[in-house]
Here is the input.
Amino acid sequence: MGEGTTTEARAREALLRRCWPDGTRACPRCCAASPYALAEGRLRCGACRYTFHDFTGRWLNLSGLSPAQWLDLAQAFALEASTREAAHAAGISYNTAFKALTVLRLALLAQGADARQLLGPQTGLDTMFTGGKLCPAPAEPTGNFPVYGILSQGRRVFVDLVPELTVESVLHFNHNFHLRVARLGNILLTDRYKTYDALVLCGDERLPYHYLLRHQGHPFAETGCPFWIYASQRLRQFKGLSTRRFPMYLKELELRYNRRGEDLLPLFLDALCAQVPTSPAD
Here is the structure.
């Protein structure tokens, strides 16, 4: 274990309680109850003969972290530590922490009502895991840049994929209908669009930034947008912000904004202990 204070035994027990709340194990493949024990903590299903262990098929099993390292990393993440700070807290390398936090962000996204849509091919997240396993980092998609809508309702905010819109639509509205658009690095942010407070997307060098009208101010100069003020400050800390990773960060910030002031660690641990869908569309 690294520099965290969580003991391995206590960490394992804490995660086991979330994986098996009533203490009854079940096969992750066929869901039959009461598997029998084998050596070295393994279990075997009496119905389908599948051999597994307590964390098989769960998000926390997609990384090589021990239970104590997961708890230390998740605690640091709940406190909005940077990747480097979270790595130090868990006593692991930066690259290991980066991979583990990707798993955690995917796990959080997978718990949402819009998970099926966001984990589909339009966002590119469908290539990040398959068959219950995290895939090696693929090349960035060569197709369209997904457009997301920010919708506020009282003190809560929702970030939706807007599948009917493309980057060409946003540029068209900007150029021909004077929809104000601000560029923030690779991010494009618009003024209000229909019911949305704003549209937002993350591009790269393929995006024709020169096409934007030059005489506009910041879209929220007059009206303001509390969520975007909150989100933009935090997006600046992410290194290598990409089209594919953008929805993970947006949905993380949506959750943090809607749950601000709450202890997020229990929510993060529940997400890590949830079953990984066998395919992103599940």
Notes: The longest strand covers residues 148-153.
